[in-house]
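Collaborator request, handled under Task 6.
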Amino acid sequence: FRVSLAAAGLAVGAIFVGILPQQTQAEVVLLRSGARLEGEVLNPTRSKDDLVEVVPVEGLKLTLAPAQVKGVLVETKVEKDYKEAVARLPDTLEKHLEMAQWCLDAGLTQERKYHLTQVLKHDPNHEMARAILGYVKVGSSWMTQDEAMHRQGYVLKGGAYRLQQEIEIMERAHQWELDVKAWRKNVKMWFGWLAGKGRGADKALENLRGIKDEAAAPALAEAVADPRLPRELRLLCLDVLTQFPPNNYAATLIKIGSGDADPEMSDKCLDLLREQRSQQALLTFIKGLKAKDNKIVNRSAQCLQRLGDPAATVPLMDALITTHKFIIQPSQPGGMAAGFPAGGGSSDGGGGMGGFSMGGKPQVISRDLKNDKVLSALTSLHQGVNWQYDEKAWKAWYVDSQTSPDVNLRRGE
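Structure tokens returned to the collaborator:
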């Protein structure tokens, strides 16, 4: 017979059905009132606005309005068999072990853990149950992994066990990232104000000059390195930036000093690096003396000259004459062959490589180039000394100049 429960004030809820394929199913209808109806739902493919037809017992058919139903759970035959088995399960260690194995085979993970927990009530030192449940033995005590790690000072954070100090470092790093992001947003906004006139622009300048938070350094460094910005604004940001420790912006000064569209910006950055006695800049420019591109070699020498650090002396001597590869492109008969740097390098500025070719494949040749900027840097570092491009003479002089009168490091030559 047909019964409607609409008058009972049963509540509304979302209807949801979870289906395990190829298994006999039973449904549990959850009512908004908190009641549960176990039975067969006759229209499982209904839409969300359709009535829910359920047979809780044979011979009784209930029709529920969608507003009365909170949801529909699907109970598989495995789950139903488990309930029936548990209802008559003796409370013994052996039976709980058997049921834990049955749950493992049936894929009932949480139920398996429950029965293993019951095993421990009968035998607290049951090693297999302890191990499956994630316990470890520390001394004479059983502990969960969390408890054991906590005893050693570790805390579970981000899916891994970490020391409290490491967590604090991670949290500070995360907060730093948030602060840096916020400062980038603020600086960009103030640059927008500067594009206008009046109070907005004045306030933007005031805000920029008043920056004291080190987390603003990345945003300021990016502005200093941006050649699209006016020189005055870049210099302003550079002035604010230099109140922070140099490690916040040394790489930016080196990049601009190595070559910027605005020579004044390059000079300013190199002067700051010199004032700071930047070892990072010194090592970067020394490395540049070994570049495949001859232009980089000479520009690095100019930067080293600006730094004025005598520690660059020997590397500069080694770079007085450097060898570079060039690609000679074949020309038409009677034409001049053109020379191009191999590997993306640059020529020494002396024009084409010269020479004639009667066609054929491109050729790669090596050429020794005298680097006038390297020589200039050496003579600047050591006033009154000039051995031109004679590397051996330079090094012999350098050894003599660094050796005390009573020690001859070249004895026996």
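The cover message to the collaborator said: "The mean pLDDT is 84. The two ends are 120 Å apart (CA to CA). Please let us know whether this matches your experimental observations."
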